[in-house]
Amino acid sequence: MKKIVVLGSANTDMVITSKRIPVPGETVCDGSFMMNPGGKGANQAVAVARLSAKKGACAFIAKVGDDMFGRATAARLKKDSIDARLVVDGEAASGTALILVDKNGQNSISVALGANGTLSPEDIEPFADLIGNAAALVMQLETPVETVARAAKIAHDAGVTVILNPAPARKLPKKLLECVDWLTPNESEASLLSGVDVVDAKSAAKAVSRLRKLGVGHVLITMGSKGVYCGDCDKLFPAKKVKAIDCVAAGDTFNGAFAVAVCEGRSAAEAIDFAQKAAAISVTRPGAQSSVPYRREIA
Description:
This protein is of the alpha/beta class. Helix content is 35%, strand content 22%. It has eleven helices and 13 strands.
């Protein structure tokens, strides 16, 4: 069985939920605290693992520190039957994130990349065969762009589907975009990459057109409560109606679920529906990986 390979970040999330997110200089004292495993890469790997039809469907490439957080990451991934290929950095600490969540589920996040930021192209060369024989390669941008580009090139040259969630937002080299089969930005990320202010379906369509001219194969733009715009379908798929309490990892859940559906041979519309259902469940729960649903819950 070919695995979906996820390459990306692994963090420990420290989350405070309160009535509102403080403004600079302000202290809000009514919060509750919890600590969860997170990182966009690890979140997406967990989503792939839990939403796949069979166990052992996901391999995860990341870099962690030689510390308690790195060891906890390895143990946690094992619980979801993820084939973890973790590079250990003897000097940098494992990645951490401080997350503030308000009563409406909106969040503000500050990330210390730590070892995530030292994952180099040389670090992933031992995994070239794993990437080249994958069902798909899923990546984000909490690791160095040159490493993402190298992995994308390995996958692209081997005919492996490359799915890139370009978050956090940043400009990307054309040589990377030309290796991407599915690009899944949100509104702000799509705006930065395309130069189009994405606010609705019409502007999303214009952004998709520009991104395709840069070499991207297919584009989905996630637009929060508005839904998901699919360039192939030329359609905005409305968001599922739920009462959100925490939007952390909703996008990661969507991307992991979408990758699973694409690898199962579903159409773009069917894959979006599957991914939206998974993301809708995730926002009704607190935390990052703790909020990711299992496949049986979507059925």
